[in-house]
């Protein structure tokens, strides 16, 4: 086990950095405005031992909900600003950390320089004693970065985006920040974080395999990434992203603690490189962005229905919202992202159509059978 080299970053009662234990965090999987449900999930995560708990905020009504939740918990709260970074000033009094996505920031107020938007977030963080997380996701990297590299290189744009924002924050004299570089492929998570840490070993890293999916596969993918990174001294806080039923949300924290304990005691279960064989189902862990709670049942139904295709090297993505869904299904052979009353079905980046929750499994099977036939035909001798 290599020692971490990062500086200290305080987030409420928790401090991240080389001399401190790796923190475990998670995120509520409810609509933030569903007050009792969101508070219930906060408490489930607290009971499981979460050091940080993230809540997504996208509207002023979400801010009101957060204000109602705050007095009822002592948890260190993190806010995910999603697609409305201008809400930062309203939510900052209630949280210990603000998370923003550089890709989303790129698309908002396009006439305004990115640095000006980041300066606003820095000013808010300073005023309210908050830390920042620069959260770079594979499915939402800004187009300017993507256009510079080959279409099959998704790692370099992520790393470049993270480094660019670190430089901006440094120039503004703000060093109370952490970075995350996430993908649903653990190999890309490993490579992206290793490359970033080689350039900026001082910056604390938040590790996670986004849309890892359902247990046990999601745990395996996550464990591989964490073992390979933490054993090299890379990573200061972790988030296990699993698709779970409501009352099982605390399992994300329990699994994270178990992985950390295994690594600390030399119990490694991974191989140097994760090799995906056969059917690969990726699905997001569910959060307040999810447009219909039926998403979780759908993900589990997809796994059951596609069992017959488990030997085929095909990736199916099941995403719960419009924020990450469109972009993060592009690389899947078949992708779904859920709206309130229908499911968008895609083949690669192309949209096939919109189907009701009752219709989608049947149409997915049709497309899956067609894809299997196409792939089989492509490997037949002439």
Can you tell me about this structure?
This protein folds into two domains: 9-264, Alpha-Beta Barrel (TIM Barrel); 280-378, Sulfite Reductase Hemoprotein, domain 1 (2-Layer Sandwich). The model has no long low-confidence stretch (mean pLDDT 91). The protein is globular. It is of the alpha/beta class. The chain has an eight-stranded parallel barrel, surrounded by five helices. It has a five-stranded mixed β-sheet with strand order 11-12-13-14-15. Strands 1-2 form a two-stranded antiparallel sheet. Helix 8 (186-199) packs parallel to helix 9 and helix 9 crosses helix 10. The protein is built from 13 helices and 15 strands. The N and C termini lie far apart (52 Å). The protein has helices spanning 35-48, 60-69, 88-91, 102-107, 114-127, 143-146, 155-171, 186-199, 217-230, 251-264, 294-305, 325-328, 360-378, and strands at 9-11, 14-16, 23-27, 52-56, 77-80, 97-100, 131-137, 177-182, 205-207, 237-239, 280-283, 315-319, 334-338, 343-347, 350-355.
Number of helical segments? 13
Q: What is the makeup of the main sheet?
A: 8 strands, parallel, barrel
Gross morphology: globular
CATH architecture of the largest domain: Alpha-Beta Barrel
CATH homologous superfamily placement of the largest domain? Dihydropteroate synthase-like
- Which fold name corresponds to the CATH topology of the largest domain? TIM Barrel
């Amino acid at each position: 086990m290599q020692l971490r080299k990062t500086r200290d970053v305080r987030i409420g009662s928790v401090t991240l950095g080389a001399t401190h234990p790796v923190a475990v965090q998670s995120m509520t999987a409810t609509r933030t405005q569903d007050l009792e449900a969101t508070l219930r999930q906060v408490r489930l995560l607290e009971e499981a031992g979460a050091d940080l708990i993230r809540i997504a905020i996208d509207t002023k009504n979400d801010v009101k909900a957060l204000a109602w939740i705050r007095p009822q918990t002592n948890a260190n709260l993190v806010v995910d600003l999603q697609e409305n970074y201008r809400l930062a000033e309203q939510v900052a009094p209630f949280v210990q950390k603000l998370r923003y996505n550089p890709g989303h920031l790129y698309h908002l107020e396009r006439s305004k320089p990115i640095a000006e938007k980041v300066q606003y977030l820095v000013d808010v963080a300073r005023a309210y004693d908050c830390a920042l997380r620069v959260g770079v996701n594979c499915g939402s990297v800004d187009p300017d970065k993507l256009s510079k590299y080959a279409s099959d290189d998704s790692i370099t744009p992520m790393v470049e985006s993270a480094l660019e924002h670190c430089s901006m924050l440094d120039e503004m004299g703000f060093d109370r920040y952490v970075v995350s570089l996430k993908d649903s492929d653990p190999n890309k998570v490993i490579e992206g974080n290793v490359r970033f840490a080689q350039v900026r070993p001082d910056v604390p890293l938040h590790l996670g395999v986004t849309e890892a999916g359902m247990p046990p596969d999601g745990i395996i993918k996550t464990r591989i990434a964490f073992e390979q990174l933490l054993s090299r001294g890379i990573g200061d806080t972790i988030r296990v992203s699993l698709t779970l039923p409501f009352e099982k949300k605390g399992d994300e924290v329990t699994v994270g603690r178990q992985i950390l304990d295994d690594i600390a005691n030399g119990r490694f279960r991974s191989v140097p490189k994760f090799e995906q064989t056969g059917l690969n189902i990726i699905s997001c862990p569910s959060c307040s962005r999810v447009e219909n709670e039926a998403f979780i049942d759908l993900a589990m139904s997809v796994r059951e229905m596609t069992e017959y295709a488990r030997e085929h090297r095909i990736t199916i993505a099941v995403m719960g919202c419009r924020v990450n869904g469109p972009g993060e299904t592009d690389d899947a052979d078949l992708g779904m992202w859920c709206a309130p009353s229908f499911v968008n079905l895609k083949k690669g980046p192309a949209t096939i159509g919109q189907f009701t929750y009752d219709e989608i499994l049947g149409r997915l099977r049709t497309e899956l059978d067609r894809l299997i036939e196409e792939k089989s035909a492509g490997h037949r001798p002439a």
